[in-house]
Design goal:
Radius of gyration: 21 Å
Strand content: 25-35%
Largest sheet: 10 strands, mixed
Shape: globular
Number of helices: 4
Distance between the termini: 41 Å
Helix content: 10-25%
Length: 277
Amino acid sequence: MTNLQAEITELWHQYEDGLTASDAETEAYATLEAFLDALEAGEIRAAEKRDGEWHANEWVKRGILLNFGLRDIQTHSYGNVEYHDVLSLRETDDLPERGTRNTPDGTVIRRGAYVGGDAILMSPAFVNIGAHVGDGTLVDSCDTVGSCAQIGANVKLGANTLIGGVLEPVESAPVVIEDDVSIGAGCRITSGFVVGDGCIVGENTLLTPRIPVYDLVDEQIIYGSLPPERRVFTRFVESSVGEHELFDGGAYKPAVVATDIEATTLEGTEREAALRE
């Protein structure tokens, strides 16, 4: 256990025993600030892959919760706008030296979020506390990267995409997008879903553990994850509601279909990557 982990764990016990923002002393806030700095530096993460599976780092998620529970609302400034929150936004002075760029008027990175090198964040976009955005990743306009979401390297998030996060319960792993994934515009990925390396997700696809993935490669139905190197899209299958003849022609529900990645699809994503460079 690291010193920071031990300090957060002890502070969490005090919080459970009734410690409040008004009771917390300078030492506690020094710990909370050091914790946020470590998140932003990528030294700690809300979830990590161990033995081939993604697992939440519970103490990290507790540290995030402490940063809400032990702080009062304050007035902060962002440009010429005042806003009221328990946390300030993340400083972005370190981004240019690592080749990362963000556009003005709406690119919001909250304190405690990690953003890698050579990344692009287009306005308006929002990256929440505890999120991890890898090197070379594009966060496009109108995208949301939720609290604790883990985004790998060289990922493309299409415009108007929602990557949900999972902060509570602390033992649950958040949404994970592994390396080299391309996600089409308008997608929604929620509730701890894991997208494997190299996948290409068609636009307006909803990925959540409640919707089955029909994997035509391994000929199986899976929930909550996509294997690596899949091309996925939404199709509609017959619903049992159709048996009640509520609608002419029956009723349908969404399902996700996963196939091999076609060479033409790969060529398209490679051309797009070349344009970004």
